[in-house]
Amino acid sequence: MSGKVGIVVGAGQTPGETIGNGRATAILLAREGAKVLLVDRDLGSARETATMIETEGGIAHCTHADWTSAEDCHMYARVCLESFGRIDFLHNNVGIGTGDSSALRVEEAVFDKILEVNLKGCLLSCQAVVPVMREQRSGSIVNISSVAAVAAPTNITAYKVSKAGVNALGQSLAIANARFGIRVNTIMPGLMDTPMAIEGIAAARGGAARDEVRARRDQLVPLRQKMGTAWDVAYASLFLHSDEATFVTGALLPVDGGQGARVG
Q: Contact 140/90 with Cβ under 8 angstroms?
């Protein structure tokens, strides 16, 4: 990634004992030589990520934005151009699932909110950056979806629909922009040991012990019965953004310890 510059949306994270996907990816991209604009609704958390990058000698700038706002998305595209002169990559790592339920029980407001954040925001972010990449005749976009798009319990309807939408969006963008040299790929993480997952489940279960939450999730993973970590997603992201993946576009890459394969 030496000499490349770009944007990581969702570069902060939920407080917790481990590291989140966005933060790990931002750190790894910077570690491999990229200059990174860190975008998050929680500017303080983005700044924590920036400090980690700068401590290792990397370069990172921060900006506050809500990607459900088209204006905010265009703002951070503009900030990246003003800061670094180009946008070589866009990494979209934002998602929520709070309040979700089965298809007959999910509330309309919850359904709308999850789709707004998970799918509409991803679309708006891409719409803000793709024109810049078209002018450059190059660029890499990686969207973080979820294996829930293809393998999920029945009680997360809105989340599943939103992530299936992210998968479809990525493939549509890949085909529409291939002639401009823009690659668009999608990662589908499985069960990961991240603060958003563990802390969220523990809170939803009335303060359940985190070790208990981890043990239950570990048992659902075919590969060694152990969840992945944010670094697994980060290394997959690094490959897809790198020059080693110049012939890869429109891919849906599971990083899930075999969950998707088990479902078939």
A: yes
* pLDDT tens, residue by residue, 1-20: 999 999 999 999 989 889 99
Here the contacts of 67-73 (C-beta below 8 Å, separation 24 or greater) are: 67/9, 67/39, 67/92, 67/94, 67/121, 67/122, 67/124, 67/125, 68/116, 68/117, 68/120, 68/121, 68/124, 69/124, 70/124, 70/127, 70/128, 73/121, 73/124, 73/125, 73/127, 73/128, 73/129
Residue 214 lies in a domain: no
Domain assignment of residue 101, given as a range: 5-192+229-254
**Catalytic positions, written as ranges:** 159
The pTM (predicted TM-score) of the whole model is 0.96
What is the domain count for the chain? 1
- We report the CATH number of the domain holding residue 77 as 3.40.50.720
- With respect to residue 250, please indicate whether it lies within any of the assigned structural domains: yes
Number of DSSP helices (H) and strands (E) in the chain, helices first: 10, 7
Query: Cα–Cα distance between 55 and 121 in angstroms, integer?
Result: 31
Residue 165, φ and ψ in degrees, nearest 5: -65, -40
**pLDDT tens for residues 154-169?**
899 999 999 999 999 9
Distance CA(100)–CA(238), nearest Å, equals 31
Query: Which candidate, 37, 53, 41, 54, places its Cα nearest to that of 13?
Result: 41
* C-alpha to C-alpha distance for 52 and 74, rounded to whole angstroms: 26
Q: How far is CA 13 from CA 10, 21, 43, 82, 192, in A?
A: 7, 8, 10, 25, 14
DSSP-based three-state secondary structure for 10: coil
In a domain, 90, yes or no: yes
| CA–CA gap between residue 5 and residue 130 (Å, rounded) | 15
